[in-house]
Amino acid sequence: MSYNQLFDLTGKRALVTGSGQGIGFELARGLASAGAEIIVNDIDEERLTKAAQSLRDEGAKVYELAFDVTDAQQVNDSVNGFEADIGAIDILVNNAGMQYRTALEDFPVDRFDFMMRLNINSVFYVGQAVAKHMIERGSGKIVNICSVQTALARPSIAPYTASKGAVANLTKGMATDWARHGLQVNGLAPGYFKTELTSALVADEEFTAWLSARTPAGRWGEVSELVGACIFLSSAASSFVNGHVLFIDGGITCSV
Ligand code: NAP
Q1: Which domains does the chain have, with CATH numbers?
Q2: Closest CA to 109 of 36, 66, 159, 166
């Protein structure tokens, strides 16, 4: 392979969970632009169809796979069905996730449980279901979406911090168990990006002023700025990168 093909994803097929909008959608767009066929997933079927159409309008080959990432049975049925009926999933981006902000002493127990199911259990469910097939083939790429909260806490989001710390450690565990089977499993940790998940913070001028002062780059991130790292971790360019968490955060985790 010549070095200028290191980032080429032609002939690969990528499943991106929660790709109906936000970061997942943009990562799906990015992987498609590098040549991959895309399997979009979301729990919201209407949003999924809209996202898929928008990618097709840009020339991508797109499959729609609606399932709830927190339901292990649905995950297994969907992944096994796709592998049997259509073919291999070469790249998995575990992106679906949620945020809920409230003081830790008042954090509802059912919200905590739900957040863990969505932010960390799902990474195990979808990762395991897809990896079984990747292991049989002796190759595969998994990118788990972590967060700046993988490394740092912030008031009112302790459970989210716990879940994203766990995603990073599960990433290391997956890499440790599965690298010998030819898989590369890595994490991508976004700092603060403008999406639906952060809309309350984007609307908060005081928070934006604080964030701009706190971040060495001095601003919010644009979701397009996550794409290069995702292509890197999904491509031959990262063939000896295992269990790494790559922070894309304008430097916020490197300075106090
Ligand atoms: P988002 O705009 O809320 O998108 C998340 C998507 O996942 C939504 O379309 C959501 O659908 C879908 N989803 C939710 N539950 C699902 C389920 N059970 N099964 C399948 N899909 C489901 O969030 P985002 O900002 O793009 O965040 C994406 C990932 O990046 C998350 O893991 C988040 O923690 C992480 N992250 C984001 C930031 C940031 O600044 N935005 C920073 C660090 C990390 P519904 O809306 O219908 O629930």
Answers
A1: 3-193+223-247 (3.40.50.720)
A2: 159
**Catalytically annotated residues:** 160
Q: Quote the CA–CA distance of 194 and 177 in Å, as a whole number.
A: 34
**How many angstroms from the chain centroid is the CA of residue 117?**
15
Q: What pLDDT does residue 245 have?
A: 98
Minimum-distance ligand 1 atom for the alpha carbon of 192: 40
Give the predicted TM-score (pTM) of the model: 0.98
- 28-85 per-position pLDDT tens digit: 999 999 999 999 999 999 999 999 999 999 999 999 999 999 999 999 999 999 999 9
Give the Cα separation of 230 and 68 in Å (integer).
Answer: 23
At 2 the three-state DSSP class reads: coil
Yes or no: say if 185 and 169 are a contact pair by the CB < 8 Å rule: no
Predicted confidence (pLDDT) per residue in 80-127, tens digit: 999 999 999 999 999 999 999 999 999 999 999 999 999 999 999 999
Ligand 1 pocket test: pick from 16, 17, 23, 68 the residue with the most ligand atoms within 8 Å of its Cβ: 23
Asked whether the predicted pLDDT for residue 1 surpasses 90, the reply is: no
Measured from the Cβ of residue 197, the count of other Cβ atoms closer than 10 Å reads 16
In the reported structure, the alpha carbon of residue 7 is separated from the centroid of ligand 1 by a whole-number distance in angstroms of 26
Computed over every residue of the chain, the mean pLDDT equals 97
Ligand 1 nearest atom to the CA of residue 71, by list position: 18
pLDDT tens digits along 135-174: 999 999 999 999 999 999 999 999 999 999 999 999 999 9
Ligand 1 contact via 174 beta carbon (within 6 Å):
no
User: Separation of 101 CA from ligand 1 center, angstroms?
Assistant: 15
C-alpha 206/C-alpha 129 separation (Å) is 43
